[in-house]
Design brief:
The longest helix is centred in the last third of the chain and has 15 residues. Strands 7-8-9-4-10-11 form a 6-stranded mixed β-sheet, with helices on both faces. Strands 1, 2, 3, 5 and 6 form a 5-stranded antiparallel β-sheet that branches. By secondary structure, the protein is an alpha/beta fold. Helix 2 crosses helix 3, helix 3 packs across helix 4 and helix 4 runs parallel beside helix 5. It contains 7 helices and 11 strands. Strand 1 and strand 2 form a beta hairpin. It is globular and about 55 Å long. The model has no long low-confidence stretch (mean pLDDT about 90). The chain has a single domain, classed as Rossmann fold (3-Layer(aba) Sandwich), CATH 3.40.50.
């Protein structure tokens, strides 16, 4: 299976602190990749490098078979931290701002609203949306430019069980639409239900990467990997 994204010995240093160190991940095309790790492990730093928000100190990112460049952002959608919404605008108006930016037709607005189940929000302003609706609108924004890769940083943070369930179904459907997803989380049970592959980061390093097997005890694996990482840094 072809990899849509690879990193080779990717590093990000802040003065003397190594936020990411020699991270090499592989994302198979049309799959969901769960990036697991404790809070502060370096997950967000990695995802921000993949979206061009921060520049790697060293190493290489390969996207769709060639060295990553800023032009690749046209094929990458991302929701990092909270959705970048105009709270005084409706869902449709928020998306209209983006279609003008990308030079996309208005028909794309209905397509992504349908995809995230926000087609019937009418004149309701985004500021009055529930947390789950805001997350879905953020994902709709990330989908506008027909991305090959969708990057989601802790997408279920702050959601109630219904919102988490809705988002889970939405994410699971993306590979069938030709979209590869990488999402970060520290909630093991969620990743277990969504992901095809996982990578476990601790102390800024990738300690484990593999396909998820239905027989795996993800919690036991996670604890073992994080403990090993802690022992090596003791």
């Amino acid at each position: 299976m072809k990899n849509i994204l690879e990193t080779h010995n990717l590093c990000k240093n802040y003065k003397k602190q190594k936020a990411n160190h020699n991270i090499s991940i592989s994302l198979p095309e049309k799959s969901v990749y769960g990036l697991l790790g404790p809070n502060g492990a370096g997950k967000s730093t990695l995802l921000k490098m993949l979206t061009g928000m921060i520049t790697p100190t060293s190493g290489e990112i390969v996207f769709d078979g060639k060295s990553w460049s800023r032009n690749d952002l046209l094929s990458i959608g991302a929701l990092i931290e909270s959705p970048p919404l105009y709270e005084n605008l409706t869902a449709r108006e928020n998306l209209k701002v983006r279609t003008l930016l990308y030079g996309l037709p208005d028909s794309r607005i209905d397509e992504v609203l349908e995809c995230v189940d926000l087609i019937n929000t009418g004149k309701k302003r985004a500021g009055h949306f529930s947390m789950g609706m805001k997350q879905r609108l953020g994902i709709a924004m990330a989908l506008l430019n027909h991305p090959k890769l969708l990057i989601l940083d802790e997408p279920t943070n702050g959601l109630d069980p219904i919102g988490i369930g809705d988002l889970r179904e939405l994410i699971r459907a993306f590979p069938q639409q030709g979209i590869t997803v990488i999402l970060s989380s520290h909630i093991l049970s969620e990743v277990e239900q969504i992901a095809d592959h996982i990578g476990i980061i601790a102390n800024g390093e990738l300690w484990h990467q593999d396909k998820i097997d239905a027989t795996d005890d993800l919690e036991a694996l996670f604890m073992e990997v994080v403990r090993k990482a802690g022992d090596s840094n003791a």
